[in-house]
Amino acid sequence: EAVTRTALAHSANTARNEVYKANEGVIKGVQWTSTLDGKTSAICQARDGEIYPPDKGPRPPAHFNCRSATVPITKSWRELGYDIDEVDEGTRASMNGQVPASQDYDAWLRKQPAAFQDEVLGKGKADLFRDGMSVKKFVDKSGRELSLDQLRKRAK
């Protein structure tokens, strides 16, 4: 099942990238979208909501069994030359219902109970998180998860 999910994610994201290329006149960026639940990996937690140029940046799958995807960020009506108001941002799914589309994993997790944060991050990382450290800081630039000791050094 995990092999199939990973292969499908790769194929789907390859197809999305082709759609982005074919529509470069209306797409100004690509946003990483991760699943808002307790099974999301540290790298996907950190990348959720990040916007990259349409032809650059990391793309899912970020790891084996990855459930993340990308969505296009389109130019505004005004950027396209139309004098029309923008539509509402909409919502996205989370394990406990719809949330604003702009809410990333960090913001979503901050609204969850402390016990759930402890379960997802581990007690030590959850304490740093509740002290204000973003989940985006829990991985290095290449996406590798940092240890609790490395994070504590960063926090000082």
Widest beta sheet: strand line-up: 2-1-3
What structural category characterises the helix and strand content? Answer: alpha+beta
Treating each run of at least 4 consecutive H or I residues as one helix, how many helices? Answer: 6
Q: Which stretches are low in confidence, meaning pLDDT under 50 for 5 or more residues running?
A: none
- Average pLDDT, all residues: 95
User: Could you state the order of secondary-structure elements as H and E?
Assistant: HEHEEEEHHHH
Q: What is the helix fraction of residues, given as a range?
A: 25-40%
Percent strand: 5-15%
Radius of gyration: 17 Å
Principal-axis shape equals globular
Number of strands: 5
Notable traits:
6 helices; alpha+beta; two-stranded antiparallel ribbon; single chain; 37% helix; 156 residues; globular
How would you describe the overall organization of this protein?
The chain is an alpha+beta fold. The protein has helices at 2-22, 42-47, 105-110, 114-121, 123-130, 148-155, and strands at residues 27-33, 51-52, 69-74, 91-92, 99-100. The chain contains six helices and five strands, in the order αβαββββαααα. Helix 4 packs across helix 5 (123-130). Strands 2-1-3 form a three-stranded antiparallel β-sheet, with helices on one face. A two-stranded antiparallel sheet has the order 4-5. It is globular. The protein starts with a helix and ends with a helix. Helices cover 37% and strands 12% of the residues.
